[in-house]
Specification:
- The chain is an alpha/beta fold.
- The protein is built from 16 helices and 21 strands.
- Strands 1, 2, 7, 8, 9, 10, 18 and 19 form an 8-stranded mixed sheet that branches.
- A hairpin with a 2-residue loop joins strand 13 and strand 14.
- The radius of gyration is 24 Å and the shape is globular.
- About 1% of the residues have low confidence.
Length: 516
């Protein structure tokens, strides 16, 4: 036996790419599409753990994410052909006196919406975006398991993954973490934090056989209710509210309906015993609206899910060689469907950060700005919209006012810039510019006040008494300045609420951990 045969075989050199993306769903695949479009000749590798992408929550877009999918990624025709055009948001309220659908409080649009948005089958969408990324030049490997990522600031990042054939290593100047709630880099490096101020949990499933909100059966049963709306109720994201909880009802192409419940664990005691799908169904059937729409429907026992403590964030979003996008960077709350907007801003900003490095810019300042902007964005966004909101979700009058102000400020500060400036507006996340502080403070203030009013109502046994038979049908927002100026009339309504009732809670302390 010669000496050469006794030597260990030298390991093969690691493969080299410009960018390795962890995760091939929407966040990862769309990042690849932008990188390939903006950087001719770039080598991009996408690694995903699933042989075929599955359905997930996040089926509803709102106006900014629809802009991103349609005008940035170029999916408008595909979305119109393979998914459902969404007709805005619709809210439903009950109290102990409400016995039927036509007696419930309702907030929503009277007519069709003005700007595009969609109800998405995420498995279909994610596969399509991944296909387009591959067509544009990305290399995709799946199924794989990410074993380790070694970061080197300003140098080559090393990714180790395994397949059925064994372990492999690749190197790249950049790693993009699009691993979703797995949040690989944030958890590995100790950046992941649970948002302790938002202890929400959720159960959801896909259902078959739900009633058609716009169908003949309900129209004949409740003719005045049906005639009140001139647009379409059924393809909206319908929300049913209760004290400390809400549920989403999202129609999907092909007839399935995604239905889930999200609740504040301080306010709602979720049943402990029984199958998850049965617990979800029984919880919903206690509500007269859900009971009407679910009559005869069944959930898919293989498509039932549960997640506790939904809200989290990373303390670090980027470095010179890595960047986090989508759910790998953080998650706020399902209400108002902010996750798809968050994907839009993080993906576009990540692609821009990598472009700057490839163009020879020094990375220290852009990385610092990226981390500052997205940290400020996350925390202001949460404080402005979600902190303590579950205290008053079930109150028609408070949600009526909050929703109109939330929507007005969303159109004014978040929706209008992309339609005016294009892609570059998605490089500035919401609430991060200097003006974001002013609007964030305003939204936090009225949100906190409505929560305090609702807590007093709960204490006095007055929750929900204003819910029966109320209906607010909004004519619709546009990007015209005159529509945005409606905000000032809403601020006047808030002042009147404070003079009529709010002053009674001015001296109350903030909520306790039990919601008292």
């Amino acid at each position: 036996m010669n000496d050469d045969s006794m030597k260990a075989e030298a390991p093969a050199p690691a493969e080299r790419y410009d960018v390795v993306i962890l995760g091939g769903a929407l966040s990862g695949a769309s990042t690849a599409m932008l990188l390939l479009r903006q950087n001719p000749g770039i080598r991009v590798l996408i690694l995903d753990r699933a042989e075929k992408l599955k359905r997930r929550v996040g089926e509803a877009t709102v106006e900014v994410s629809a802009f991103f999918l349609g005008r940035v990624l170029g999916l408008t025709r595909y979305l119109n052909e393979h998914h459902i055009a969404k007709q805005g948001l619709r809210f439903w309220f009950v109290n102990d006196e409400v016995e039927s659908l036509d007696q419930a409080g309702e907030i929503g649009a009277r007519y069709q919406v003005r700007l595009p948005s969609y109800q998405l089958d995420r498995a279909e969408l994610d596969e399509e975006v991944l296909r387009r990324a591959t067509e544009a030049g990305a290399e995709v490997r799946r199924p794989v398991t990410i074993k380790d990522v070694m970061l080197s600031s300003g140098g080559d990042q090393t990714v180790t993954y395994s397949t059925q054939d064994g372990s492999r290593t690749v190197q790249a100047r950049w790693v993009v973490d699009a691993s979703g709630v797995a949040a690989f880099l944030a958890r590995k490096n100790g950046w992941w934090r649970r948002n302790e101020e938002q202890p929400t949990a959720s159960a959801w499933a896909r259902w078959k056989g739900t009633k058609d909100w716009d169908g003949l059966e309900l129209a004949e049963k409740y003719p005045q209710w049906a005639n009140a709306v001139h647009g379409i109720r059924g393809t909206a994201t319908n929300h049913i509210f209760g004290d400390g909880w809400w549920s989403w009802w999202i129609p999907l192409k092909g007839g399935d309906t995604s239905i889930g419940v999200v609740f504040d664990q301080r306010l709602v005691n979720w049943p402990e015993e029984g199958k998850l799908g049965d617990k979800l169904k029984n919880f919903l059937l206690e509500n007269p609206i859900a009971r009407e729409i679910l009559d005869g429907a069944e959930y898919d026992p293989d498509d039932v899910h549960w997640r506790r403590n939904l809200s989290y964030y990373s303390t670090t979003f980027a470095g010179d060689g890595f960047v986090l996008v989508g759910d790998a960077a953080g998650f706020l709350d399902p209400f108002y469907s902010p996750g798809m907007d968050w994907i839009s801003f993080t993906v576009c900003s990540a692609a821009e950060l990598i472009r700057k490095q490839r163009d020879g810019e020094a990375m220290a300042a852009p990385v610092e700005k990226f981390n500052r902007d997205f940290s400020v964005c996350y925390h202001r966004w949460f404080s402005a919209l979600y902190k303590d909101k579950y205290d008053y979700l079930g109150e028609f009058d408070l949600m009526y006012l909050a929703f109109r102000m939330d929507l007005s400020l969303y159109y004014w500060g978040v929706v209008e810039p992309p339609f005016r400036e294009g892609l570059k507006a998605l490089h500035a996340p919401p609430f991060s510019p200097p003006s974001g502080k002013l609007f964030g403070t305003l939204m936090s203030l009225y949100n906190r006040r409505f929560a305090a009013i609702a807590r007093r109502r709960r204490k006095m046994g007055e929750l929900g008494r204003r819910n029966k038979g109320k209906r607010c049908l909004i004519p619709g927002f546009t990007l015209e300045r005159k529509d945005m100026f409606r905000l000032f009339g809403m601020l006047g309504s808030w002042a009147m609420l404070e003079l009529k009732e709010g002053w009674k809670s001015w001296g109350d302390s903030a909520r306790s951990e039990t919601g008292a």
